[in-house]
């Protein structure tokens, strides 16, 4: 084991360079830019070392188009004898840059022991770490048993339907093909993430009647109806959710309760193009739409989650004349949680103890990630998230990943391979 840890240490510069190369490919989602470029980069690197490389486009998946095709790459290396397969899955897409940066978001600057850039933490640093860890392991243990897979997949930031969900539907995560999955999401190098809360996204629409703005009494303002919805949420729904607590080890502590985020609200006349210089027309809004993001606990049932919102809307209807509404499901994901006794959990826990001299902390993510598809579609339960980086830095300006953290996580990943593929 000492030789393997030393081998990782010799690859520090390679790990930094790999991370920089990945960050410098701006795989922005939406709309889905440069997906093929980053898949080609990973495929060329691994293919040159003898790995089998498959490029898979998620044709027909949400977001896939000829202009922005949803490309994924899966690299597989067979061992010298039969055994199990360990799969490292990382998403290659990154969110919008946003404002407030003092670094070049795609410059991949290496300074102060960090690599900076959009996606450094979430999660190109994790992808690079899994690549270098696998390379180091294979260099010392070319006679390993089983197989290793590394994938870089699309669209996790927008649900993963053009990435892991599509691959799971095609059998890439069939338990007969893959036995252990590690997703290098940035949840701290001494934590093992067992799963995530559930999510229900929905649109609530209030309906009114259009009329001239100078005579609003002849119409029915949908925005005012939505104001009543917001008032009722504050009075009854938010207090209800605050009282729900979970036994799941969700981090941070605030996410141990049920939560609801008002993601967007739109009512009245649509926003005009930026070059429009006229005034809005005088109309009473006849519809208003609210998008909600409801995160729920493993102790809750999705039917009850939806019923709470419907009951809230019915209470409003009893108090407001002419109140009409619709609730439209957008998507839903059940909570997922791998057992602490699962083989991949026990193995990674032992590796963390060897590398860092401490026990791993078991956590659950407040938001979903691609484990949901591996669990629900692939029917593979032996899956965790483990990777370098601090989750709070994800989607922030001046995002970064620590090189020492990547090195330690790389040692854990390499030791995990050594323990599972002997």
Keywords:
single chain; 422 residues; Aminopeptidase; Alpha-Beta Plaits; 2 domains; four-stranded antiparallel sheet; 32% helix; elongated; Peptidase_M20A
Rounded average pLDDT: 97
User: What spatial form do the alpha-carbon principal axes imply?
Assistant: elongated
**Radius of gyration of CA atoms, rounded to a whole number:** 24 Å
Number of helices: 10
Number of domains: 2
How much helical structure, as a percent, in the residues?
A: 25-40%
Q: State the secondary-structure class.
A: alpha/beta
Q: CATH-wise, what's the superfamily of the largest domain?
A: Zn peptidases
Q: Ranges with pLDDT <50 over ≥5 residues?
A: none
Q: Give, in order, the helices and strands.
A: HHHEEEEEHEHEEEHEEHEEHEHEEH
């Amino acid at each position: 084991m000492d030789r393997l840890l030393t081998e990782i240490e010799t690859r520090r510069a390679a790990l930094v360079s790999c991370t920089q190369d990945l960050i410098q490919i701006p795989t922005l989602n939406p709309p889905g830019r440069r997906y093929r470029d980053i898949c080609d980069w990973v495929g060329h690197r691994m293919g040159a070392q003898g790995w089998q490389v498959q490029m898979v486009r998620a044709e027909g998946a949400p977001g896939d188009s000829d202009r922005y095709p949803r490309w994924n790459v899966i690299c597989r290396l067979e061992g010298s004898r039969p055994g199990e397969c360990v799969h490292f899955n990382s998403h290659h897409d990154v969110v919008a840059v946003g404002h407030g940066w003092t670094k070049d978001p795609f410059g991949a600057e290496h300074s102060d022991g960090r690599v900076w850039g959009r996606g450094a933490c979430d999660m190109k640093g994790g992808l690079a770490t899994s690549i270098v860890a696998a390379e180091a392991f294979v260099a010392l243990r070319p006679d390993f048993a089983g197989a290793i897979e590394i994938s870089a997949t699309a669209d996790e930031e927008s649900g993963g339907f053009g990435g892991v969900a599509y691959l799971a539907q095609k059998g890439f995560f069939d338990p007969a093909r893959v036995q252990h999955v590690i997703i290098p999401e940035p949840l701290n190098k001494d934590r093992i993430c067992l799963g995530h809360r559930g999510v229900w996204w929905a649109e609530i629409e209030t309906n009114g009647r259009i009329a001239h703005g100078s005579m609003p009494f002849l119409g029915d303002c949908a925005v005012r109806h939505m104001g009543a919805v917001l008032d009722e949420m504050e009075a009854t729904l938010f207090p209800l959710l605050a009282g729900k607590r979970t036994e799941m080890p969700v981090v941070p502590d605030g996410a141990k309760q049920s939560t609801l985020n008002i993601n967007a609200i739109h009512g009245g006349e649509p926003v005009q193009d930026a070059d429009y210089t006229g005034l809005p027309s005088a109309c009473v809004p006849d519809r208003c739409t609210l998008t909600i993001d409801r995160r729920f606990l493993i102790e809750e049932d999705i039917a009850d989650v939806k019923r709470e919102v419907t009951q809230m809307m019915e209470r409003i209807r009893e108090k407001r004349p002419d109140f009409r509404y619709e609730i439209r499901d957008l998507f839903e994901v059940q909570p997922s949680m791998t057992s602490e006794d699962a083989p991949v959990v026990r193995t990674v826990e032992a590796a963390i103890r060897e590398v860092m001299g401490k026990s791993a902390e078991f956590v659950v993510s407040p938001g979903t990630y691609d484990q949901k598809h591996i669990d629900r579609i692939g029917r593979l339960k032996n899956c965790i998230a483990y990777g370098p980086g601090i989750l709070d830095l994800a989607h922030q300006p001046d995002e970064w990943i620590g090189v020492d953290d990547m090195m330690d996580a790389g040692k854990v990943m390499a030791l995990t391979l050594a323990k599972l593929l002997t």
